[in-house]
Amino acid sequence: MEQLATLEDLPKEYVSTLTQSNLVPLWPSLRNVLPPNQPIPQTQATAWHFKDIKPLLLQAGELTPIEKAERRVLVLANPGHGLENMKATSSIYLGMQLLLPNEWAPSHRHTPNAVRLIVEGTGAYTTVEGQKCTMEHGDLILTPSGLWHEHGHDGDEPVIWLDVLDLPLVYYMEASFVEGGDVQEVKGTDRGHRYAKGIVPTVHFVRENSGYPLLRYSWKDAKQVLDALAADAAHQGPAQISYVNPETGEDCQKIIGYSAIRLAPKEVVQLERRSAAQVFHVIEGQMHIDINANTYELSRSDTACAPCFAQIDLINNGDEPAYIFVADEAPLQKKLGLYSTRARI
Ligand code: 1HN
């Protein structure tokens, strides 16, 4: 493609006259906003190790009372986006949150969608629109846009979880805001028991929160399905599950997609190159991940992110299966007609 003229090729007075009228010439910036053939991501391959995060998070527990934090979180920020922008990828926010015994993170609701993936500890719960969802290691709990949610802790050890939100996108759209609320009345426990093996309740009433029939996806169940897939001789390719709305089969949230992969001991999975950036988090086991020219060793509770169109290899060097949670921007890109894949190089 043709090299285009730069700002320096224009007379200074001309440029300053443009500026005074809030005008900008397109051509000096055209190749930045429309790079040839593929995007130039700001997202950098980055890994965060739990052994580094945990002591700092526990220290935050001593330094800042929950009343002064509302949510006690250390954000996993991608240096390619500038740490202060709190982005793991262009649209995905990641944070590790700590709740100590007897603490309470008050009820609120906001426009960004959130999920939490439970990393460590027992005894805590999230109440979402009156449904109390207990937290156990590996569980996925949804707090979709506009639903009231609060966290409590009746146990006796620190509980840590990974928050995943579409905050960077919603903030960019100038659509991000929160409302505070009163303590919720608990009306029931999570509705997981309503859904089993292709059996769903017949819908003959108007739903309170249509679109989010299931709020807690139990890791015990997800792991069982992954193990069954791996043991099934007829199953082709890596054992992988998607977290979906059990009534429609669609992605469980509108913007970020959630899935999990099982890597058998010594299994190597070469992912296709995707237009959607991705996040990987080790639920159990360990893995070696190659993202373009970067290599990371990830253990239990470690997290990494990969930019769009990255070439990614997942390798389980251990003797036990590895279970990896994946978050990606695919639902958003598909809705916008922007999703594509490329052959590996
Ligand atoms: C939020 O509501 C939670 O409810 C956690 O636990 C992290 C980060 C940004 C905005 C809202 C929570 C958040 C958040």
TrEMBL record:
Domain Cupin type-2 intervals: 97-164
Residue stretches spanning the membrane: none
Keyword Oxidoreductase: yes
SUPFAM superfamilies: RmlC-like cupins
Gene Ontology molecular-function annotations: dioxygenase activity
Keyword set, alphabetical order: Dioxygenase, Oxidoreductase
Keyword Oxidoreductase: yes
Protein's UniProt name: Cupin domain-containing protein
Organism: Acinetobacter wanghuae
